[in-house]
Structures are given as C-alpha cells and as structure tokens.
Protein 1
Amino acid sequence: MDKVIIYAAVNTKIRALEKDFLKREDYLNMIREKSVVDVARYLKENTSYGKLLREVNIDNISRRDLEDILKNNMIKNMDKLIYYFRDDYKEFIRSLYIKYEIEDLKILSRSIFNGKDLETIEKPLSFLGKYSRVDPKILFKSKTNRDLIYSLKGSKFYEFLIPLVNGKRENRFRFEMALDMGYFSIIQSRKLKISREDRKILKKWEGLLADLYNIQWVYRGKKFYRLSPEELLNYTINYGDKLTFRERKAMCYAKNLEELYKMITNTIYGFLFKKEEISRDIYMERRINRFIYYKLKALDRQFSLSIIQTIDFVWSFEFEIRDIISILEAIRYDIPSEEARKFLVKVA
Amino acid sequence: MSVEKMKIVGVIGKKNLLSRVLRLVVLNGSVHTINALVRVNSSDFFLPPSEKNIEVLEELPFLKPCSSKKDFTKDEEVVKSLLSLFDIKPQVREEYLGQDYNYDDFMKQLSDIYDRVYSTADEIEEKMRSINKKREYINSLKYLSRFDFDIGQLICIKYLAFRLIKISRENYDKLKRNYENIPAVVLKLAVESNNVIVVSITPVILEEILEKIFRSLNYTLLPLPVEFTGTAAKVIEELNSAIDKEEKVIESLKKSLEDYKVKYIIELKKGYSRLEIEKKIEELKSDMANGDKLFFMFGFVPVSNVAKLKSELEAQFGGDVIVLVDDVDKGGSNLHPPTKLSNMKLFKPFETLVKMYGTPAYYEKDPTIFFGLTYMLLFGAMFGDVGQGLILLFAGLILELVLKKGSLGGVLSRIGLSSTVFGFIYGSVFGSEKIIPPLIIRPMANINYILITGVVFGIALILSAYIYNIINSGIEKNVERGLFSRNGAAGLIFYLILLYTIFRVVVTHSSISPAFIYIMIGLLLLMVFKQPLANKLIHADKLYQKSPANYYIEEGFGVIETLLSIISNTLSFIRVGAFALNHVGLYVAFATMAKMMTTSWGSLAILVSGNIIIIALEGLIVFIQALRLEYYELFTKYFRGDGIEYVPAKMEFISSTGKRINLFHKKNIFCNIGNIYLYNIINLKWGS
C-alpha cells in the first residue's frame, strides 16, 4: 500500500514524460544529417524538443550550446520528479545527481590542471552544485585543485577529497579516483532511508553496476595503466552482485590479459569480451550501457511500483543526451553513419 | 482624506554636488523619483529663460542618462570586516548622516584604519595557525601515548619508515582482506567514528610502493613533530606549554586591538551608515540625467512636503542648485503621478485591502472611505454577534498595538466593532438569543425580511457605485465610460427603469407603459454604440479603436452580458442575509448538541468550542465574501486601480533618541505627538 502512495503519482508522471523521448526513427534520421545546425533543426521541427528550442536561434548553434540546453532540460525534468517524493526519498532522488555532478567536477578539475580559462571549457558544466548545493560561481573561481577542494567544503564530497590537499604528485588521478570511490560510498549510505523492498531492488541493481564497472576497471587498469594488483584492488568498488571479493581479487592478480579474459568469460559478463581485440575496447562502454539500458527495462517490468522507474527514467534521459551528442560528434569528425550507429545506446 | 496632491520638483546643480544633494534628498525622504529624460522631453516641461537658467537651457538638448555605476564591493568588505572584528552591531543612525561630508575621503580614512588594524590581526592569525599545528601534533600523539618508546628516535630511524595514518573503515577493510600482499606491518591503534587509525612500518626501499597503495586507499597522514624527543606523553606536555606561551602573546595582541577599537569606534560606526546611504544614492542615479557640467533630477513630491524640501536644499546649497516646482498637469503629459493615500486613522487599515485590488490612479477619487464604511456594514450584517464581535475587536487591537501588525489588526478591530453593533441589533450574544432583546430584528424569525433587506442594501450600494463611476469619468473627461457605457449614465438609467419595471410587475402586479420598454431598448443600443458615439462627440480622430467588425461582435456579446450581470449582481447581495441566517443556524446546531450532553460541563465545553469554530470558520468566510462583494460587484464598476504607488527614496534609520522613525509619517500631528510620547516611554524603559 505504501508503494502506491509513493509511486503511483510519480510513475504516471514519468510515463507522461517518457513520451517526449526520441524514437528510433529520429535517431536514424539525425545520423544522416550533415551538420550540427541540421541536427538542431531536425530536433526543433520534428521532435518534442521543439518546444525547448523554440526561443533558440539555431542558425549558429554549437555543439556545446546544444548540449547545455539538453542537460538543463534534463535537470528541469529531474527537479520535477523530486517534488513528488517525501523527505527521505527526496534526498535519495537528489543523489541521482551525484553521478553527473562528479563528471562535471572532473572536467572542471582537468581544465584547472591544464591552466585553461574556465570560460572556454568545451563541455557545459550544467550539473555543478545540483547535489553538493555549492554555488557553481565559487567553484569556477578556483585557480588550483586545492581551491576546488576547499570550495566543496560542506558537501558530501569534501570528506573524500580532503586527504588530497597535502598531496604532491599525481593529484589529478587521485582526485578523480577519490570522487569515484566517494560516489559508491555515498550511494551505499543513502540507502538506509528508503523502504526495505526498494533497498532490495537497489542492492541488485547497484551490485550489477558495480560488477560491470569493476570488470571494466580491472581490464583497463591492467591494459593501460600498469597499476600494481594491490592498487587495482583498492580502487575497485567494494561490493557486487555476482562477483565476490575473492573473484575480484583473483582478477586483479591475474598474470596477464589472457588469464583475465578466461576468468571473465566464465561469468555472465562474458559478453563484454566476445568480439576480437580492437572492438573489445572501443565498444566496451557501449556494450555496458546497452546492457544497463535493457536491464533497467527488465527490472522496470518486474517491479512495477518501485524506485526503478525513476532510475530508469533518469538513465534513459542520460542515454538519450549521450546519443544525441554522439551523433553530433560523429558528424563533426566525419564518421560515416553506419559506423556512428555502432556508438548509439538506444538504437541497435 | 484621499489622494494627496503632488507637485513635480526638479533639482539641477553642478555635477560635483550630486552626492551631497542626493544625500539630502534621501534624508528628507519625500521624493518619488522619475526618469529625468522623460520629464525633460515631455510636452509640458517649460523653463523660462532668465539669467539664472541660461546654463541649464544650454545643456538641455544634450542630456544623457547617468551611467556610472560605482562598485561598492571593496568598501563593503572593509566596513563589514571592521564591524565584525570589533563586534559592532551594524546600525544606520541619523547622527552620522546629517553632516556634510565627502564620501570618498571618508572611505579612504576607513581603509587606512583597516590596513593598520589588519596587520595586527594577521599577526594574531599566524600565532593561531602555529597553535593549531601544535594541536594537530597533540592529536596524533595521543594515539601513541600508551607506549613507552622515544618518539624522536622512532621518527628518525634510518632503514624503516614509520607512519601514523587515518583511513576510512571501508578502506581499512580492503587493506585487511588483502593484507598478505601489502609490503608493510600495519597495526590498528584506534577506531574513531567512520575512520580507523593505524601505524605502518615498512623498509625505506619499499616506501614508494607502499605510498601508492595507501594513496589508492585515500589515506590521511597524521603529522608527528620531528624536533622533540621523549615519550609521547612527555612531548604532549612540552607542546602544551608552548601553546600556553603563544596564547599569552595572542592575548596581548588582542589588547592592542581593543585600543584601536576605543580610538576609532565612532568612525567605524559612521562607516556603516554612510555606506548604506551611498548605496541608496547609487540606486537613485539610474533615474537622473547628466549634461556637460550639470546634473538633472526630477521627482514627485506631495504638496505638504515641498516647502520643507525646498528650504533644506536652499539652506545647504544656496545658489548652486536650481529648484523647480511645477504643478501636475492633468490632461496631456505622459507622466503619471504616484498615488499616496492619506486617510483618517479610522479608515487607514482598509487601504491595504483596496491596494490588494490595485493602487488607485492619481486622478481617481480614493475609494477607501466608501470601501471602509460599506465593508464594515457588510461584515457586521453577516456576522452580527456581541460576544464574538468583541473577541474580534480585542484580537484586532492586540495585533494592532502590541504586535504591530497595523493593517490586519486594524481591519479586524473595526469589523469587530461593527459586528458588536450588529450583535446588539440582532440581540445575539455568543450565538445565544436569550440574553438580550434585539434592537431591531432577529434574523431567524424574519427570514424573508432579512433576505430582501440584503438585496435592497445591495441595490443602494450598486447605485452609489454607478454614481461614483460617473463622477470619476467626469473628472477624467472620459465620455465613453461616463455617459454611454454599461457602468455609466446609460447603464444607470437602464438599471433604474429595470428596477421600476420589476417592482411594478412583481410587487404591485400592475402593468407598465410600453414607453419604458422602448427606452430600455434605446439605452441598450446606446451601450452598443458607445465608442463611435463618444468619439464623434469629442471629435476624436478615429471612430473605432480596433476594427469595427471586432468592436460590434464584442459589444453585441456585451449587451447580453449586461443584462445577465445586472440581475446577478443585484441578487448577489442576497448572500448578506443568507450569511446572517447561516450564522444563527450554525449556532443552533451547536446548541442542540450541547442540550444532548448530560453534564453541564459538557454542554459548556461544546458551546465554547462551537463558538471558537464559528468565529474561525464564519469569520473567514464572511471576510472573504464581503471582500468578494466589494471587489466584484462594486469595484469593477468604478475602480480602475492602475495607479503607481508612492515610493519615496528614503532610508530607515534610528534617530538620536533611540527610536526608529521613518521620515515619512506625515500624519495627524496630535496622533504623532501622542505616539512619540508613548514610544519614548516604552523605549526608555526597555533600552534601545
């Protein structure tokens, strides 16, 4: 009964908002366009983004501007959903912003590290402050990573970043890893305030995510970063759905990539490695995302009045924006449409 | 009583006097500024040529808006930090503003003080930093305090690296589960909230590898002091005594700061007041215009304040400024004077309710008195009860006088009074009709009579609304609205004829002559053709403001609406009687329930709670219903409410006697003196 009270209204709202998502034909049509402006025009004239873009002059629009508009639209819709929840759930839904804010913080810190003028950052940093509640203007005033860390004081990220303040080398790497580790820690702690059923569902869902990301991390760590197995293990996420600690440890201590492949193909996550060498790397992220996308849909059907619908909505939105940006990048870099399709999540 | 008359005052002077003039204007607090360029370019602005005005006339064609925007962030920082450092409460006081001063010089003085003070403050901060570092060491050392070895020796060991670190519980768990692969000896010392304190000992050659591993666990190094020897406990003692010494130094430095405070306190207090008024002045500048050497400022000033303003300006600046005073021209200019309502104290709280609908335009007759009287009558008639009315009266008085919520409290007390009076008329005390006899009538006993009286009262109000509208339109010379519209003369005559017809047909059952019917149809036609007729009469350029087709369609439907709304508006007033009956009925329900109680305490409880519910529920409903009748039946007929509110440039400040005054209380002198007397007594007792 409690489920209905919490979820009936918001799930209905989500169904209503979902009708605004792009359809398969929209993606296929956009891939065939020739420039960023054409894609923007297509969005304006043929999709529900028309309302959003009505005031915008699309003749000179850049990829950055379009991305900013799309992201702000996502924020607006997420904020709408937050209104439907009570206090303890409100906090939980707000924490869905953490992932996107961390991405933006990483980009910001990279730009600071590279000494770039913060006004000209390639990507729009629309999610800054949405979870941490820090004023983005303060963040933008940082001249060094140290300033950035201090300006996050009072937010949940601070406790994970403060040990880095006195560090010497490799601060950038540590900064990003600290944020990521912090993320998984925070989402574990916020689970305590929601209903038992939702917690069970989330355990399964987040365990799945942790497994996928851990496998990806260990693979990349071994292949590109040459980290010691201890470090690899320390940077893994400390829980999982199907992978136990022992299996994770074994993967970190695998002597070479061949051994790693064998270990992984023995799990249900073997699909990440089915094709040949090159495609393993480039499309691994896409494979992971598609897996997540379909898994969310399956969980959606299985648990019809739960937190999954909201999570599914947010992730679907993220994938949609990612796909639009992928299309824009493919156009900019002159990638043929057949190739570009292989990077899309929502379209096979 | 009504809208205060305004005059347009212009002040022109040399640009270097600008700040001082504006300061005076803000302190005077009676000028509602308007855009100077708009004023100068309007058709009724005229400056007679004379020797004094030559310069002004030269500059008139070349005026530009005032564009400089001063940045106050630095000044604000200086003032804010000085005030917080010395713990001075920020207050705007009159005594610091009255003098003539140069703002920039004064601010420079303040920043000199700031620099001097802050070098001492910096020293204090450095000492505090050093103390904090020592405290950190003590914090780290306390985990080692139960051991007996010499800390100094341990830290300087040549081939082993000794570290004291803090990691989160989660990460400690990871460390423990992979311990066999970690190239160090790790000992857990303590657990603190979410973190674990450990000691790691490793050969120096492996330190780098260990560092990477610990970094991946996001560790924090707990610092240990290197220059001390002895056991942890001993070192802690030495550190504590060093801290004591440094604290004494800080004390003496703080004392020297105190001396600064004593020396400069007046200047610092002045700083806040002067900064605030400077910011206010900067806001005003956006309405002003600049010529080559002169500035131009214009604003509306109520006639009663003009003389004072003029004399203050001339006293301070003499011939260096030119003060122009012009009348507000009724017809042509596009400048709309702001509306300042000044009503008697009895009706003042109703201004809020009128303003909720809209601020009266300058040329309208102020409806506040009419509104106040009729509202009190309506509320009283619908709520009439002696006891409940007295409760409202007292509640209102308490709100008004004690809690200082003037408008809500004022309205409540007045309608409470009216309810009490009507309570005597109905003979109802706390709902019970057995205590006193009615002066005129009991509602429940004469239901039809009450309902019809309500309607008759409503008809009287509606007729006055029509007359009000005709008068207002006459003042504005709006022929269309006054003569031919459905709220004007045509509508009035139609209404009267309609009433007469209904009266004859329904009450006396006689017939009426067909002439009346023809007249009514003729009036309806007049209403349809109001716009072209009016424009023809006043010889305007266009007959129709929009296309004729649109106009006739609109007016056609307008006629139907007129017929419907005339009936419904009149009948709407039945609710006055209905709510009076409702009030009694609700009490009857509670009385019945009280009779059903077996104990007398129970009955009393029911009656008391019943009265509370009736006051709250009925009070709210009647309040809103009366407001609705006023707004919808009456205001829509005559009140436009599109005026601008009078907002003079002024600052709230504390005067030298310690009470807060707004220089804008130009009320009844007697009232003021009485209030000032009371306020002073109260403030002297409770301090400022």
Protein 2
Amino acid sequence: MDKRTAFMELSALLTGVYGIASDSQNKLLYESTADEYLRRLMGEFSAPLPKLLDAYQRLASASPKPAIDDALLGKLKAEPEFADPDVVSVAKQIVNIWYFSQFNTLSGTMVDGGLYERGLVWSLIKAHPIGYSDRPFGYWTKQP
Amino acid sequence: MAHKHDVVIIGSGVAGALCAWKLSQLGNYHILILEAGDNAITRAQRIIFQNNMDAQGNRGDMFAPYNNLKSRIFAPAPENSQLELEDQRDKPNQPGTGKEKYYDYADITKHAFKAGYNRMVGGSTWSWRGNCPRYLPSDFKLKSLYGVGRDWPLDYNELEPWYCDAEWELGVSGNHRELDGLFGAYRSRPFPMSGIPLTYSDEQIKKRIDGEDVLGTKVRVVTTPQARNSAFFDGRPACEGESNCIPLCPIQAKYDATNHLRRLLQKPQIELRTAAVVTQIEQRAGRVTEVRYVDWRANPPKEHTVRATVVVLAAHAIESPKILRMSNLANSSGQVGKNLMDHVQFELIASFPESLYPFRGPQSVTGLEDFREGDFRKDRSAFRMTIGNDGWGRTGSPASVIGRLLDAGKFGSALPGEIEDQITRMVRLSFSTEMLADPNNEVDLSPKKDALGIPRPRFKFDIGAYVEAGLRRGMEVSTELFKIMGATIPPPPLSKPLDNAATKRMNWNTAAHIMGTCIMGDDPKDSVVNRWGKAHDLENLWIIGSSVFPTSATSNPTLTLAALALRTAAAIDREM
C-alpha cells in the first residue's frame, strides 16, 4: 500500500467520512487534497505521523483486507502506538484538517491547511464555505 | 508658496468620503484627502484581502484580512485591543514589525478599551457589519428626559432629512412599515431598498418568540436596516449571503467607503494622498492654516505641509483627538479626548431544539428593538439586541466543535452526525448597551511612541455601573428568550458567564463603536464643536465622525455619523 492510499484510508477511518477512501467519483479531488494535507502534517508531525501510518498499514495488510469501520478503528486505538500522546495528537489533527482545513501544532498554534473551501464541514452543515457563496440572493430563506 | 486647497479632509473613512462627496456636489471645490493607510480600493485589492483570511480562526476578526498591510508599521491599528487589560499590558511590544500593541493605559484605568478600528483607505467600513438603525428621538435628550448623560444641541426632527439622505448614500435596505414611528422615530422617506429577507433560522426563531412577553416587554422580531443590497443598487450587486460581512464583504454588496472614494477620484479637483500620517494642524489668529503630515513611503519618512482654507478632521474618535492634542488645538473646553464611549456588548449562546442551518445568508438579519427605550434609562443602560446567523459568533467558531468532540475521544462514524447536529443548532443573541458621556473616560497622549515617533493613544476607561446594570438586564432577557425558544444554554466554559471571578470584572465585549472625544454642544465651555460640527475655538476647523456624539444611544453609529457628515458638508459649503 502506498503512503497516499494509507493516509486516505486512515483519514476515512478517523473522520468517519468513508468516501475519502472509496468515493470513485471524487477520487482525484480527494487524492490531491490528501497529498496536500499529508505534506502539511508531515511538516509538523514528522515522527508521530509515520508511526500512526505504520500502525494502520499493519492492520490493513491483513488478509482478507478489513473493512474501514469502527471495528477497525477500535483495533487501531488498541495498537501500542496509540499510547503515545503525540500519536493521539496527530490522529486528532488529521480529523481537524479534513473537516476544517486547519490543524493545531503540538504547541497548540492553529495552522492553515491550505484548502479552506474543501473542508468537509461545509457540505455536512449544508452551507457554502464562509466567504465563498455560490448561491443567488435570498437562497438563505429556504430550508436546505 | 505651496498650493492652497479649498478643503483638506483628514481621513478617508465613511465620514471623510461622504463629506467630500457632498462638497463635490455643492461646489467645484479643490479637495485634498489625507489618509494614513495605503491600500488600493480596487476589486483586485478586495480579492487579495479575501485571500488573507482563509484559515477558520481568523473569520470574525475585523483585522484579519488587513494585518499584512505595510501601513500597519507606520499607522498601527489596535490589533490586540480585544484582549483583557492584563494581557494587553503584559504583551511584549514589537516595534516596527506592524505587530506592536498600539494602545497604552493609564495606571488608574479600570478596564481595557477594547474597541478597535482600521487605519486604511476606506476606513473601518471594510470590516463593519453594515447595521444602520437610526437614533430614537429620546436618544438626543437623555439628560432632560432621564437626568443622565447629556443632551444633543439638535434633535431628531433636525437630523431626520439627513438620515434619509444617508440611507440613500449608503444604500440601506429595510422595511419602512416595521420601523416607521419606532419610539417616535418617524420616517419621512422609505428606504432605498426593501429589507433583506429573513433567513430560515430567523423564521424558526421568530415563530417561537414574536409577540411573546419577555420579562414584561412584548417583543417583535424585525429586520435590521442594513447597508447591504437587497437588489442591484449604486453599481453594486445584491447580497449573496457569504456570511462574511465582518471582516470583509467579498462582493461589496455591503457598503463601504471605497464606493464614494472611487466616484470622487474620477473628478480632477479631488485628490487622495495616501501613506500620509497627519502630525500637526497649525493655527494663526483663530484660523487653521496648514496641515503637516509624514509620508511614510519615503525612506526615511518625509514631512510635508499643505495649506487649506478649511480643514475637516475625520480620523475617527481616537486619531482625531490625538491630532488635536498634538496640535494643542480646539481644546479651550478641556474636553478633547474626554467622554470616550463604546457600545459595551455581550452575547449569550445556545443550542436550538432543531437545526437552524446558520452561516447561510448575512451574519445577522434581524433584531429586537424593544429594549432601546423606557423609564429605566434613569437607572441603567438600554440595549439593542441582534439575532445572529453566525452560530456562536465570537464565543465559539464552528471549528471549536471539533476540538471538544476529539477531546471526548470521538473518532469515526459518530463524528459527521455529531458535527452536523451541533453546528446547525448553534444560535446567539447579542446585546449592545449604551454608555454615558463621562469626562473621566479619556484618551490622551502616551509618552510611548509609535514607529514614526508619534505618541500612542493612552486610555483611562471604566464602563461604569450604569452599563453593568444594562448588561445584567441583557443577560436576563437573553436567558428568558432562550427559555421561550426551548433552546439550551451550554454550561461554562462553553458559554461565557458575565462575571469573571479572576479579573473581578465583567466579561464584556466591544461592539467597536468608538464615540465621544470631540463632542458637540451649544456651550463652548463644555463641548468641542458646535451643532454644525465646527470647532468652537476656530473659524475654519470642522470635525466629523462619531467623535462628536454627545450620547452613544443604542444604535450602531455609522448611519448617524453619515447623516451628520452630510449635514456638516452643507454647513461648510454655506460658509465658503
């Protein structure tokens, strides 16, 4: 499994948005987003992120390949790497960056994820990214 | 001898721009506008500003799109002003980086002065919300009606036609029938545009509270008059509901002063000089003669002098009194810099029983005007309430949800549903109280200097018991309103309590509505300008902007200062 695929599957598992790893229609979009987020997170979490990816890949390489679901998530959390608080931190920031295109460094500073408009939160709350309306005057009067 | 301008206006914000515009309509005046900032007013500039704020945490911060401006080094803005007093005092200064703390405090100050402003071409209208309520007739007569604060030297009747003009200049949308006659505030002309339609969220809230009795007051949900287009108007598009009014409307459906500046600059007799920080106004025999400014684009910064028949000070309520104090001007009353006011604001958050889908539409469309007037003003502040359409507003961004869920150990399939449920039910009520003019609340010159060697503003500020009692009432009313809605107020620290045990002060916020400091009155012994905005002490110095307000009332100040700026421009024209 290549690093990108591992990161996308891990992201799907942690965020609960399984489409990140399986949505064939938006595959290219998710891949380019994953590349950018992986690059940014590696810059801050150069040690704990590979540890977490290794732990995931160990689980995912089982045969037959396990489904991405909460059962697999439970197994990941039980891996020894998850006892490391820095690994838990990076797991949280993977969720943060996918939903809000931002993450916190280990020292707690908030950093831009670079792809604000692609945050998963917007479609979830049925709004456009704040500041990027693509809708006409008055759309807000209707229930989305 | 340098060329003599008919009018030199100091400041290119909404007051300066409207005054220049009105003068340019009344005569063929040669007008020079001096502006400390140096940004462009083009569409490209707007896009650059928008690109500066793509990280979540910056939204709602009035400075976020603008803090990369080079002008921040030489014309600093108070970017840290919303912090508590201790945090502002303790924050290390970083001179010359554009990140220095700008405000200084007198030892005896009780509170921080939290209100900020943007020193840039177009002023703070880049980052305002756009709300345009009028003053009520009683707001001009606070002293004679309730024995507190001051009276204005003019009344509602006198300002009413100018309110109408200001509503057309700013492009205010509103529903005439909802507001005509509000506590006696009649409207002689309709709004230029009908009101912004209510959001889905507003409708759900209105269903539950409209007409209800709230602690003895019957409430009515009304559309806030707002300088936000509900149709194509004045060359600008209708609102697209970006939910980004503060800090920047990406499409200029919300009015800002660049609108008038662009129009002005098409006239050859109007000149805008940017990167020009005014340091001194000279006088001779009761007349101002020259204005000195520093051009910070020159290296090293270079001082220039311009001559003027008339000088109009429009640098907002902190820089205007600073310039007067540095020039030792217009202060025979001793009131320059005194009577500093803000709208002391607080907001209460809750989770509505069903999804409201905030962040669709403007940040706020509706409000409650019912608490703005009453006999209680003898004892405590009145307030205006707004119903937010921006989740938990300043109390918590949508992104704050994720931190809490993750800290609770939630990962995986539970997350999307939880995030959707929590964010779509977010609602806030905010209330802005009126402050009384009090000479003890003051801005003067600090011995500490900015990058150009100009004294920084130094504050002595206390919101006072009158406001504190108003805030308490605002909290009670908001709590009751949420109870009627069936909304749940989350426990602290999620919701912020009013009283802060650590600081022994209230946890109030600022509405960033800076007023007072050059107030208007008939008596030269206790006011700075007369009823037309002319300095009592000088023949040809005029002051515009909210610095001349003798009462803060509960209205967002821009419409009133716009009306006064137009009126002052007409008075200047009469005397030319």
